Amino acid sequence: MEILILAAIIAAALALFLTRLVPLELTALGIIAALALTGILEPAEALQGFSSPATVTVASMFVLSAALTRTGMLDLLQPALARARGLGPRGLLVAFALVAGVASAFMNNTPVVVLLIPIVLSLCRNSAISPSRLFIPISYFAILGGTCTLIGTSTNILIDDLSRKSGGPGFGLFDFTPFGVVYFAVGAITIIALAPLLLPERTPLSALMPARRSASFVTEVVIQAASPWIGRRLEDSLPRNGELQLLELIRGEEIIPAVRARALPLAPDDALIIQGSPNEISRFLSSAAGVELASVVEDEQRVPMRTIQLRLIEAVVLPDSRFLGRPVMELGLHRLYGVKVVAVQRGGRQHRYRIRRMKLMEGDVLLLQVDDRGAAALREGNDVLIVEGVEETIHRHRRLPLAVAIMACMVLATALLHVPLAVAALSAAILVLFTRCLRVDEAFRALDTTTLMMLAGTIPLGIAMSKTGLAQAVVRATVGLLDPSRPWLLLSVLYIVTALLTEVLSNNASAVLLTPIVVRLGADLGVDPRPLLLAVAFGASASFNLPIGYQTNLIVMGPGGYRFSDYARLGIPLSIVLWLTATLVIPLFWPLRPL
Q1: Which of the following CATH numbers is that of domain 211-392: 3.20.20.70, 3.30.70.1450, 3.50.50.60, 3.40.50.300?
Q2: Given its phi and psi angles, is residue 570 left (phi above 0), alpha (psi -120 to 50 degrees) or beta?
Q3: What's the pLDDT band for 214 if we cut at 50, 70, 90?
């Protein structure tokens, strides 16, 4: 009976994870409550996820990553990346592969990608390379780099912890590295070869903005219904003296590039995104009948855009933002920061109307009208990624050597002195706070509550699967379908099943469901379960076909101007190559030998 109840809890949890009808954190808490209330687990067992070494380690790694970020670790790489600009798209991809891959092996990959976004846009503004050719590859490089060490991704930490709890072997800090390096190299070569051929060339608004904005502004003007311009071609209506530059025409929800827009006849409510000096834009507005500055959202009301002395910036809503699930009108952006909302972009489409009641989602892009103080306040809040030059970000460079030394000591203590990873990571997190590499409030903001609550809620699910015998029942059914003499086939199936689950659920949820089953499966087949666990670990990180499967994919969607289908263009061939690589190469490093 307990098995049936547990199966129902798992089915309900999977449905909620898949549909996102309620926040993921609430689903995770519901799992804990359901396991305790049904008596499947004792209350202390149901709450084990909060004190699990995996949860403690992942939380500590968020703090350490934030310390390295705040002290400006990636700033050191900006000059080298700038020099790589002359190598063309593939040369830049090689440079970003090395940077994102190495950094993500020891830092959480989300802040790595966040830090690289403004660098990419800065490079693209000074070259002929579209940012849409770079952002998806950078996200994939960060995902691949995270698989190279135990601490590179929360999934590896979770699988190690669940394996030990299920009676299986654990992993050392660098046990993932031999195959991880091969996996990363094969994936990176595939991306570098195919990305310039398969990815579209799109230009988001942020990339069109000039690198220096002191003398030039970007604003939006709307063609009124009574304007004499209605029906006239745009190129016949704009000034011919070159003072103003047209960037885009927005018609309904469609964004039309300037090259195509110039030949189109104007229609009522068309919005023109134009660039020029304040005097040039003012002269244009005074001479153009029926053309007005667009309206913006000041918290609960729409007001005319009264001035162009405020610059327009893009801000990407981050996965752990306090803005998630809240309507624009309730954020208080104007009251708190003096910020006005011009538009919201979601899934590559721009929304200018009815945005006051839009509930924000991770990856949404806000087009904001701000002054310098408002932009600085938003940046400090860590709820959005301000898409602009890295020169605007203030870092504590003097403490960078100290932060790096603390991280190195943690790695050495774990690898050489065999200090438990959770203890070493927690000690290192305390040290970066004690030495003021990171403030306490910054440490709390660095914690990804969604990931931590997912761990706390799903770890007891793995314990329950082992305790009730559900894992053993699944193993018996699986063994009956497979040929025990060909365990490599099982490894291949495990990888692809995990990768498919990751695309629609999450990497950690997939790992929790499969790890107890794999440990028991190895015991029943009489083979070392570690190769099978590696297949699950790498398959759980193989989220390349949809933006929703991995945080970094969603973060780059707005700045790159991507649509959902763009990920699959590169993701499908990459997934096939990596699946074959895992099937053929994992047994070379971890033979499927009998116990």
Answers
A1: 3.30.70.1450
A2: alpha
A3: very low
495-525 pLDDT per residue, tens: 988 888 887 777 877 888 888 888 888 777 7
Q: Are strands 295-298 and 301-304 parallel, antiparallel or unpaired?
A: antiparallel
Spell 422-431 as b/e; 16+ CB within 10 A means b.
bbbbbebbeb
**Which residues, 6+ apart, have CB-to-CB distance to 434 below 8 Å?**
none
Listed by start position, the domains of the chain span 2-203+401-589, 211-392
| C-alpha 80: how far from chain center | 24
Contact in structure between 463 and 32 (CB atoms under 8 Å)? no
Report the Cα 160 to chain-centroid distance in Å.
23
Query: Which positions ≥6 away from 393 have C-beta within 8 Å?
Result: 118, 379
CA 234 to chain centroid: 38
Provide mean pLDDT across the span 199-228. 62
Written as six digits, the tokens of 241 are 């003296």
Tokens read off for 81:
């990346």
Q: Which helix (H) or strand (E) holds 399?
A: none
Instruction: Decide: helix, strand or coil at residue 461.
Output: helix
DSSP one-letter code for 322? T
Task: Please say whether the beta carbons of 507 and 546 come within 8 A.
Answer: no
Q: Which residues contact 79 (CB under 8 A, 6 or more apart)?
A: none
Cβ–Cβ < 8 Å for 179, 149: no
Measure the CA–CA gap between 398 and 582, rounded to whole angstroms: 42
Q: Is 327 helix (H, G, I), strand (E, B) or coil?
A: strand
* Mean predicted confidence (pLDDT) in 281-289: 66
Cα torsion for 345, 252, 564, 503, to the nearest 10°? 70
Spatial separation of the C-alpha atoms in residues 207 and 561, rounded to whole Å = 10
For residue 494, what are the contacts with CB-CB under 8 A and spacing of at least 6?
514, 518, 532, 535, 536, 539
